[in-house]
Amino acid sequence: MSNYTVAPAPHVHGGDSVKKNMLNVIIALMPAYLAGCWYFGIGALIVSCVAMVSCVAFEWFISKFILKKQPQINDLSALLTGLLLGMNLPSSLPWWMVIVGSLVAIGIGKMSFGGLGNNLFNPALVGRVFLLISFPAAMTTWPIPDQLSLFGSVDALTAATPLAYIKQGIFTTFTEADMILGNIGGSLGETSSIALILGLIYLLATRTITWHIPISIIGTVLIFTGIMHGIDPCTYASPLLHITSGGLLLGSIFMATDYVTSPMTKVGQLIFGAGIGIITVVIRLFGSYPEGISFAILIMNAVVPLINRYIRPKRFGAK
Amino acid sequence: MKTFKIGGVHPQDKKLTAQKPIITLAAPKEAIFPLEQHIGAPAKPIVNVGDRVKTGQMIAEAGGFVSAPVHSSVTGTVSKIAEYTDPQGFSKQAIYIKAEENDEWADGIIISDKLETKTSLDAKEIIKKISDAGIVGLGGACFPTHVKLTPPADCKIDSLIINAVECEPYLTHNHRLMLEKAGEVIIGTRLLMKALGIEKAYIGIESNKMDAVNHLRETAEKLSDFVHIIEIVPLKMKYPQGSEKHLIEAITGREVKSGAIPASVGVVVQNVGTAFAVYEAVQFNKPLIDLFMTVTGSSMTEGGNFRVRMGTSMKEVLDMVGGIPADAEKVIGGGPMMGRCISNIDTPITKRSSAILCLEKQKTVREDVLDCIRCGKCMGTCPMGLEPYLLAKLTEIEDWSELEEHYIMDCIECGCCTFTCPSHRPLLDYVRYGKFKVGTIIRNRK
């Protein structure tokens, strides 16, 4: 008898890993993150770094001392949650609120379900929505973009976001160039449309995600707001303004596509995306909040198990 | 270029030995012939200890219709009929023969290198010769060829597909066979068409072997009899294209229904090695006593393609290529995707053998298993359109009835799911176990 390993096939692996996927998403977020740091300065850096450090720290502590299992912070998922949470916050948010948000994101959103892979809702969004409901004033105070603030005062001037203006029926506050580049008020990582789309291209090129979820969300929003705009252009803003404002791109490219909380089949992903698009527009146009993408994603997250149960892949040789 | 529609993966294409011509290895000094080298009933010995047998002589007859006889690959004396240990360590019955120096061929076998293109035999006679020669499918399944050539009466066969896909990484012996024995392969294919009474055949080859595609095309044209049409089909590279059902779909677009056989869509599939064996059996009465195999590995300098006689021990074959490399972690019979680990290299080469692959540790190490992140990649790559993550989970909680409803029996065990999983979950290990359990339950129900 020889001393060779005996194991069932397959004997080789394609080389994909959880860490690689997480790293790809982090890389894809970099253009939008750097744009946020450029526009919102030192405040953006502080908020995002506090979010990342506290998310990783909470994951480590909870795994080690409460769940009593080997912490898995090496898979970069906690870092990604921190980055996403930070990018979904206004750059002027007090640091301790960021820590509270991180605790909710990791503690309730993720670890209470058993850690990565078992959570029902997107952890970063759980954290963000918790903050939005708990501290509505701080969460809707938007500093105006000011590159100089990197060297100057953290207490920059504040102003309303495009979505807030839209809610009031004012559609012409910002130039198209500013909307695309991100020179507008908003959460620190959501303003630069062009940077977010660069990230989407990277994610598609590395096959980290497929087009189904982001395109179905964006497409649904385009169609829905397009129809409304066509009916009454004075009350309802144009579809392009809707796409480029608020967290729509950040949400549809980076939050809704989270593997754990999105459907597995392509058809399921299209349904999921369409649902998010519809709910977002309904909240934006008819709800009391100016923005609805976070709620829309969380609501559709809850529907994912149902979608996975009823939408099945096409079988070879199905009778 | 054609390929199958659902799923599939692209393993790194490592064909280290594609340029190495086939070398015929010398006959072994002692040969071991297992009685079970095929699907179906084991063969029954027809020789006794002490009998002298010639090369190519039948030493065990078929144990039924779905069975195949076994022939000696050497001239020598039967030393014992006893147990041997198979590559996976199980004890099975085998005939041991002590070989003499020189071959003395059994009556009726013609030894010739000349390409014999003509035959006057009819379908029945061809099938009889194939059956007598002990030929089985050489793609790994080892299903007796004569059974496949006599399909059920309600199936109208119109096409033959020769499987020359060789989609497993590392394997190259089919590629070399097509380059070096193209005429024999074409005539073998034509004989199979005659046996089936059809006039259309396809030879499916993946696009990393375009030299074989072109060479076979030229040869088929040159040897054309203007009745039997043999079309060489290059296929877009994708694993597991060599799977019978997927090859049929790739070439003809027909889908074999769940649980049905290829004949139900009018197709019979044979391996290219089988076509060659059929040629020799029908034209020269030569039984299946040797086969082509790849012996390879990243750190094996003398690896290559060999024509090896049945009964030779794997160790002997490995010794001829400089032994197992020092850094080998696994010795695999077959390719890296579906091959089986060999725990015992003293075991003989049989009709089931196709390759010996020595993989070093860093290529074959299994990473730590993480929780499923529900990315759905296993579903995207499953060529049967199943849900591997769910089948693995249901096996874990032993929900056999739910597993059956999720078509676990459709799994072809290609390994795409485990190969793809970013959490390194051993999905196929679970599914195989679940399949075994559900299969047992289904059989007991009947």
Report on this model:
The complex is a heterodimer of chains A (319) and B (446). Chain A is mostly helical and 319 residues long. Mean pLDDT of chain A is 90; it is low at 148-154. Chain A is built from 13 helices and two strands; from the N terminus they run αααααββαααααααα. In chain A, α12 (266-286) runs antiparallel to α13. Helices cover 59% and strands 1% of the residues of chain A. Chain B is an alpha/beta fold and 446 residues long. Chain B folds into three domains: 22-100 and 288-362, Ubiquitin-like (UB roll) (Roll); 123-284, 3-Layer(aba) Sandwich (Rossmann fold), CATH 3.40.50.11540; 377-445, no CATH class. In chain B, 28% of the residues lie in helices and 20% in strands. Chain B is built from 14 helices and 17 strands. In chain B, β15 (328-333) and β16 form a beta hairpin. In chain B, α3 runs parallel beside α5. The longest helix of chain B is centred in the last third of the chain and has 19 residues, at 427-445. The radius of gyration of chain B is 22 Å and the shape is globular. The mean pLDDT of chain B is 93. At the A-B interface, α1 of A face α6, β15, β16, α13 and α14 of B.
Task: Quickly describe the structure.
The complex is a heterodimer of chains A (319) and B (446). Chain A is mainly alpha-helical and 319 residues long.
The assigned structural class of chain A equals mainly alpha
Share in β-strands of chain B: 15-25%
Instruction: State the low-pLDDT regions of chain B, or none.
Output: none
- Rg of chain B (C-alpha, Å): 22 Å
Radius of gyration of chain A: 20 Å
Biggest pleated-sheet summary of chain B: 6 strands, mixed
Distance between the termini of chain B: 44 Å
Poorly predicted sequence stretches spanning 5 or more consecutive residues of chain A = 148-154
Strand content of chain A: under 5%
Per CATH, which architecture of the largest domain in chain B? 3-Layer(aba) Sandwich
- The overall strand count of chain A is 2
Output the structural class of chain B: alpha/beta
Shape of chain B: globular
CATH-defined topology of the largest domain in chain B: Rossmann fold
